[in-house]
Amino acid sequence: xxxxxxxxxxxxxxxxxxxxxxxxxxxxxxxxxxxxxxxxxxxxxxxxxxxxxxxxxxxxxxxxxxxxxxxxxxxxxxxxxxxxxxxxxxxxxxxxxxxxxxxxxxxxxxxxxxxxxxxxxxxxxxxxxxxxxxxxxxxxxxxxxxxxxxxxxxxxxxxxxxxxxxxxxxxxxxxxxxxxxxxxxxxxxxxxxxxxxxxxxxxxxxxxxxxxxxxxxxxxxxxxxxxxxxxxxxxxxxxxxxxxxxxxxxxxxxxxxxxxxxxxxxxxxxxxxxxxxxxxxxxxxxxxxxxxxxxxxxxxxxxxxxxxxxxxxxxxxxxxxxxxxxxxxxxxxxxxxxxxxxxxxxxxxxxxxxxxxxxxxxxxxxxxxxxxxxxxxxxxxxxxxxxxxxxxxxxxxxxxxxxxxxxxxxxxxxxxxxxxxxxxxxxxxxxxxxxxxxxxxxxxxxxxxxxxxxxxxxxxxxxxxxxxxx
Length: 470
Ligand SMILES: *Cc1c(COP(=O)(O)O)cnc(C)c1O
Ligand SMILES: [Zn+2]
Prior knowledge:
It contains 16 helices and 15 strands. With 470 residues, the protein is α/β, with parallel strands linked by helices. The protein has a domain at 97-121 and 234-427: Rossmann fold (3-Layer(aba) Sandwich), CATH 3.40.50. The strands form 4 sheets. The chain has a 6-stranded mixed beta sheet, sandwiched between helices. The protein has a 4-stranded parallel beta sheet with strand order 8-7-6-9, with helices on both faces. The chain has a 3-stranded antiparallel beta sheet with strand order 2-1-3. β7 (175-181), α5 and β8 (199-203) form a beta-alpha-beta unit. α4 (154-165) packs parallel to α5. Bound molecules: pyridoxal-5'-phosphate and zinc ion. Pyridoxal-5'-phosphate (PLP) is lined by residues 126, 128, 154, 228, 259-265, 340-341, 386, 388-389, 416-417. Pyridoxal-5'-phosphate (PLP) binds at residues 126, 128, 154, 228, 259-265, 340-341, 386, 388-389, 416-417.
């Protein structure tokens, strides 16, 4: 599978190509983001997507069985940049699409038409593992030892996990270095980075400051960058879409809804469909809805207020720069309970605009209150998720209310991370008293613990008076 893949500048007017062994995170000529592209005519791509189904059950412990067990490498013909023996895998991406009928009824979608893609089931508890499997494969191939990322939490947890279990081809351990902002990071996520042995630097500054520092460190301190500007990360994240299609019997849904932070996922999803269409493996493309938190709504503002568009790669970057300039001048920083999407300057902005154009997408933003209510609703119906993930369901509610999505549409919400990542937020939601129009009350879907004397009679009374209804 070598020599078929290359890195390519996404700018149409540049489109410069680089070999996959060239370590770079932006085009040397023009500074744009890079894609991993393939000479598909020389690749062996299956004629139909159903080819991939049988790999769920490959027996044995050899290289093929290990790759087939991974929800990323099971689809290796669609990300053909690595040889089988180079593959790094920790059984990531063994996630399945779940039909969510009760939740569908609650949000006004016809039962049978709403699905949740629960990426919290990944080994480190978030979708980031899909991307790390791909990026570590290439890091190991290049003999890179020191890996680094800026993180709101999940990237660091995933990177540290892969680093602690991967050795270089010379058998040396890897050294993970994590840059977290001095502000908010959920304890669950920080715990993972520490436990996996990452050198964890708490930087005085927010995520965007960490991001720019780690990019400098990559250039100056021989650090292999594991954020989603690394184009190999996005190759792994494409497979989330393949599994969604697989879960729908290879039928294309009407909508994919995803929370937007650094916009790696949105970008990867767009690329997945661009390629599937090119290869003739799907005959249509779903619409994409990217959901920002209202406190971190850069994409929403740029698209909905500034009318920023991809326009075949001719993005008006002066508009973006002046937007960031105003943000700085007004002292506006990203702030939301959904820490995983608390990002003011999304690094994959151009690729996300491309995905929006290709998938006829929309962008919306939802307030923290709506995110937390949606999170509780998702939990009530059987799937925990962390706040950022629930932005997808809160976004669905909004798009239903506004009539953008209709009850008969087939909708897939991506649940990006596990509920236990941020149990603080969950416990706080269920116990906090809010002041709503001079009335003290619980949150909409609160489920508070009940104090109960230690007698069977008291317990019986509590059960009978229980107000928790489904
Ligand atoms: C990273 C992350 C996001 C944001 O994804 P992007 O690809 O950066 O837009 C959303 N939710 C969770 C749980 C995450 O870990
Ligand atoms: Zn270029």
